[in-house]
Amino acid sequence: MNLRVPVLMAALLAAGGVQAAPNETARREIAGLIGALDGSACRFQRNGSWHDATAARAHLQRKYDYLLKKDKVDTAEQFIARAASQSSMSGTAYRIACPGQPEQTAAVWFAARLVALRQRAP
User: Fold this and answer.
1) Cβ atoms of 26 and 66 closer than 8 Å
2) pLDDT, tens digit, for every residue of 59-86?
């Protein structure tokens, strides 16, 4: 076997040249991230307007579905970066405000949820 093939594949994967569908763990994590908004009293800001958790969840699910069709997401980290952090139209960062907590970027909020999900995973 040519020893350069694995190196090339690793470089292409790192650069986004080859995409893979999310594995079961990634799908579970992404569903958990989207679902973290369910039932919360958090508000989600996108493009200057605040939305409730239900509307935010629906928006993020649509973005995730689009990315899946385009083979643009295969990890929870990619979901956060490509769907849950900023508007793909304006480039404006999403923000989340939850009662009793300081307002923060959605990227930080979702990253913290991912850490928590992974700590609970068997």
Assistant:
1) no
2) 999 999 999 999 999 999 999 999 999 9
Q: What would the two tokens of residue 45 be?
A: 């800001």
Closest CA to 75 of 36, 110, 30, 116: 30
Q: In a 3-state reduction of DSSP, which class is residue 13?
A: helix
In the chain, the amino acid numbered 112 is A
In the block, tokens 């139209």 appear at 89
Domain positions in the chain: 21-120
Read off the DSSP letter of residue 121. Answer: -
- Reported as a single tens digit per residue, the pLDDT across 21-47 is 899 999 999 999 999 988 789 999 999
Burial class (CB within 10 angstroms; exposed 0-12, middle 13-18, buried 19+) of 108: middle
For residue 44, what is the enclosing H or E element? strand 43-46
Q: How many Cα atoms are found within 13 Å in the side-chain-facing hemisphere of 50?
A: 8
